[in-house]
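In the previous chapter we treated chains in isolation. Here, by contrast, the input contains two separate entities that must be folded as one system, with a combined length of 718 residues.
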Amino acid sequence: VSVAVDDLLEEGLLTPAGFKESSAGRRQELLALNGSRGNFIGIDLGGTHIIGVLTDLTARVLDRVFFEIRPGLPVDIILDQMRAICGSLAGSAKATAGILSIGICVPGFINPSTGASIRAENIPGWSDIPVKAVFEKEFGRTVFTEDCSRAFGIAERWYGQGRGKKDFVFLDLGYGIGMAIFTGGRLHFGSSHKSGEIGHTIVEAGGRECVCGNRGCLETVASGKAIARDAAEGIKGGRSELLSGLTQGDAGSVTAQDVAIAAGMGDPYAGELLERAGFFIGLALGNAASILNPSAVILGGGLVGSNKVLVERIAGSLGRHTMGGIYRDLTLQVSNLGIDGSALGSAALAMNAVFDRVS
Amino acid sequence: VSVAVDDLLEEGLLTPAGFKESSAGRRQELLALNGSRGNFIGIDLGGTHIIGVLTDLTARVLDRVFFEIRPGLPVDIILDQMRAICGSLAGSAKATAGILSIGICVPGFINPSTGASIRAENIPGWSDIPVKAVFEKEFGRTVFTEDCSRAFGIAERWYGQGRGKKDFVFLDLGYGIGMAIFTGGRLHFGSSHKSGEIGHTIVEAGGRECVCGNRGCLETVASGKAIARDAAEGIKGGRSELLSGLTQGDAGSVTAQDVAIAAGMGDPYAGELLERAGFFIGLALGNAASILNPSAVILGGGLVGSNKVLVERIAGSLGRHTMGGIYRDLTLQVSNLGIDGSALGSAALAMNAVFDRVS
């Protein structure tokens, strides 16, 4: 350990921070991370947004950019926006040091050897995008890529509800649904870097067709995408005046956020939609828990923020659908990282590589 | 490593086995496990049988005892039989050395600190049995206890289809259904030693009530117990002359083995039962695979042996119910350890402890 510490001191990543008397009377030198030594960029491409963060070595967020994606935006424009966000953070006036490396997450499979994004089911036309190569060429820094749900899980383990936990799962509820699995304190990537596809576990055999090609996947009934789809149908069918008002009659523009707001205001139709989504999320999550026996299940992502109704429905369903002896041993928690979890996790991924390099 | 090797040589567990010239011209000493140095007992308490094996350090089976359990056998008699089997192996004329330690597996939750069996859902009345304490007192050897499906998984990892694999699952199909999960080459126990309860994942929401208290668990529709229950109903309803003949009219005595035999002979009703069981097993297994991204799914246990029809049905359903990109990266394999897998795994557990002790 001391060799690694010497290296970190020499590179200026650690700085002396005074002394402390230990209980044995020996004086111990305290060390602190030198936040000003290096900055990192984390970029999160979600189904409905791009978020970029600039952080220092202590994971303090120095700058942040948010860009909304409407479904159907062409892949070229999405990539251009990601580049623009990365460029704006790289040149940010709020930076405290040079950029050491960049982390980027995309929703879906990553090729772990090339860092390319193989496919994002929820972004039409997005396939075989050499994310790592494109950004390394443009920004001259090492780029690390990861799936967004796993990136969010990394942020939970470093900064969130997952601190100090060894066996837990993080459920990423957004436009799509993904999961990060930790076993023995480590992220489980799976044999080909594709673990955590709980959104494509089947909760209604023979149900609605999914973008993945199978039928009855969790994402077809409970994702942000599915809730928005059902809400639009409901508005057209005149089932909710409140949702109709919130979207000013433009049914197609309704989002899962609108449904959360309407349900919070007591709208029965919005409540039904979240009841159904929570039922199926709790079922799929209960099945995952019965297999994995986690000490905690952490809920996060865009669908969870200020959506108390959904969280309550998930909690109820989880209790009915997890094997009793396993349910009693787990805690259900809600992330406190908000919508930036995946971007923070991407920056952590980039940061982690710095420590791997010197240790 | 060399310190551990010296210890093993000193204790006689390793013996010199000649020399070999290495490519660099250096003479390397070869070592072999001294099979005659210690023997181990492995005992498997299943839902329908008790199997005991006596092995040496090279995992060769020196002696074996099989005892059939009819459902409803009192707990005291089951424990007495386990003791009798252990005693018979401990005094076996085929032993090549003294017993070093004993491994025992039971179906269900184990308390990892006390080695007690908390509960076996499929053995009525079996709860809070201090298995480790009872056998240590009677036989004067250290006893290790484990869940039977995890014990079978250990045997697969050491001797079976799991050799050399890092991320894989073993599905134990018998009177009940359990699973052993390996991540990064290690068995995943879960946060409270309860992982792998795939038999209690829910495949039919709101379905038939399960012994665990929930509804629609995989075990209610696809376990050996469920198949036998459905077969008995079918015989009573006159749906299969073949099954009726095989059981000589005693519908209650029909087993899942009988159904496998009848289906293999082309009996349509038996075929329907296995079609249905295979459908749900493939669904639950596909869901586990979509979450875990294993390189292999290994099928084993009493329900799989000489049951080609069921294996084919599982394979078909697994293909339809696993996310495509994950299904393409996995191999479906059938165990070649037969019905003794859990007993062999229990002996391996006992053996493993010897190496942990000296290394």
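Chain A has a mean pLDDT of 91. Residues 173 and 209 of chain A are 20 Å apart (CA to CA). Compare these points with the single-chain example from earlier in the chapter.
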